[in-house]
Amino acid sequence: MADPPSATQRMPSFDNTLGAILLGSVFGFMLYGLMAHQAYRYYRMYPADRPLLKCLVSAVMSTLSLSETFHTVLWIIVCYEYLVVNFANVANVAKTYWYLKTIFPATAITMLLCQVFYANRIYQVGPHWRYKLIVGVAVLFMAMHFSWAMVAAVKSYLAKDLKQFAASTLYVSISYGHAIVVDIIFASALVSVLRNSHTGFKRTDTVLDSLIKYTVTTGVLTTFFEILIFTFGLLYPDNYIYAAITIPGVKLYSNSMLAMLNCRQALSDRMMQDIESSSLRLAPRTPPRAASHTLLFKPQGSHETPVSFSTVVDISLTSGTNGRDYETSSVGEEDKPAQVVAEGPMISGEHSYDRTMTYA
């Protein structure tokens, strides 16, 4: 008589359901840690931001951090309950619980906060009225994206098991279809604003080109994830591959927004370094201020004649950007007089002499 199949043999395959969610959660948790680090860097690097910008960013980041944390905690509970507590319990695994149903609104709120930030950014920097019109069109698609996400949330709350829960996948795909349009609008508008801001100066244009590359890269990355969610939601509504992709996809939204805020100092420092090096090379010579040279001149057929005079070279460049002062010295360290001593023989025509120069 054949042995009855074991419990593990009767278990269905979880590769494209709970297995996909586990992998998506791992990558999502890593991006959540990166987001927390970005938020910490912002408050440390930009304490002197304008009060209005500071309040706006603080409000967005506080709400975003809470929603991202809540979103992360929900997926931790999902993994623990389905993969640990209800392991090998097929009846309970097939059911839906409140933490699984709450993920849809948490995801929609997080994405909406990031989209609001980008919409405000374009509205503020857009130099022409047509950019305001573009923001209006984007806001319309944002509202449609959030509305369809709420429809999916309601459908998921009414579901009694995972089979009924899969019926909400269609609305998730429709929601992400509108999110794709929003991302394309924002990326195109930001690139247009930056391209129209070119000044003709190489160093300024280099910084603007760096911002354009960053905007295109982040826009392509978030749009790529949204296209994957949209496609898998339509083609495979019965598995959770689309849900697994949403976990790192939402975290990319938050990280791209915070990275845009935190890259300002790096770009500013880069521009100032180029300006300082260029200014030091092209600055006109100024009359010496104080000094001490000792020159020993020895023409042929004459006695040694010492000559002494004074000169001080003190070159400094002070400029400000974003409320910060930059001070550099061409010689020596900051707040400390520098001394450069040059010694050696000099030969000119029929005369030969030694020179000792001291700059203090």
Kindly describe this structure.
By secondary structure, the chain is of the alpha+beta class. Helices cover 66% and strands 12% of the residues. It contains eleven helices and six strands. The strands form two sheets. The protein has a four-stranded antiparallel sheet, with no helix packed on it. Strands 3-4 form a two-stranded antiparallel sheet. Strand 3 and strand 4 form a beta hairpin. Helix 3 packs antiparallel against helix 6, helix 7 runs antiparallel to helix 9 and helix 9 packs antiparallel against helix 10. The N terminus and C terminus are likely disordered.
Strand content: 5-15%
Describe the sheet with the most strands: 4 strands, antiparallel
Termini separation comes to 102 Å
Please state the structural category: alpha+beta
Helix content: 55-70%
Overall pLDDT score: 74
Strand order of the largest sheet: 2-1-6-5
Order of helix and strand elements from N to C terminus: HHHHHHHHHHHEEEEEE
Coarse morphology: elongated
Low-confidence stretches: 1-5, 288-360
The number of strands is 6
User: Taking Cα atoms only, what radius of gyration do you get, to the nearest Å?
Assistant: 32 Å
Number of helices: 11
